[in-house]
Here is the input.
Amino acid sequence: MNENRAILITGARGGLGRAAVRAFSSAGYRVFAADITPPDEDDPLVFPIVMDVTSDESVSAAAETIKARGGLYAILHMSGVYTMDSFIEIEPGELEKMLAVNLMGVYRVNRIMLPLIQKGGRIAITASELAPLDPLPFNGIYSMTKTALASYSNSLALELDLIGIRVVTLYPGAFGDGMPKASVRAMDRMKAKTRLYPVVSERFRNIVISETGKAKSPDLLAKRILRILERKRPPFRCYINNSLKLRLFSALPMGAQAFLLRLLLKPKTE
Here is the structure.
């Protein structure tokens, strides 16, 4: 049991976040389940925390609540927003929101919460399997935010290791049905509004649907993260359920990638 250990989990209302809350509370951790609308868990070890990662005031208020209960052993970042769009057509406000949540939200929570983390504690930052790969068309916006997040996380890991706190960057592939559903909804929105890619977006949507049926259970990811954070010396980087197809595609020269995409996405001729 880990009744003396407390963990803050952001994005706790999402499918992956809820699974993480269950995994850590089942292992005996006191769990601060944070989200704009936190989950209502019937568990004495789970403490819902209202927190908007884009707001200094909201994160600071959450920190005061956690401090009053004794501080933290770990932070697990599961919050994030997702879209598919083209860099030319995405609205500035939507791009700024993605950066505000996916990158700056993690920075803000770590900066404000760090004084609450005990020496020997952990910070786990969820990037994406896409972060170390060449970005795909229409997924590049999300990939850009997660690549920036991974760079931040890897540098932070070296800095905080000097003061006895381990930062782990997670690169999970497909888990749960949240991301596949979000991908299809995002492509539907793009298809409805695009002026530059009406045919291409439809064909890309079909590829997304065909490739998103391999997601694994969020509980498997949550249990894997639990095991990682409980190691005496967790690795700095963890790759979990990554796609071999994506890795092989990213290994190709960019010209070859562009050629294959034209073959896959070009309109069919009569």
About this structure: The longest strand covers residues 117-126. The two ends are 66 Å apart (CA to CA). The chain has a mean pLDDT of 89.
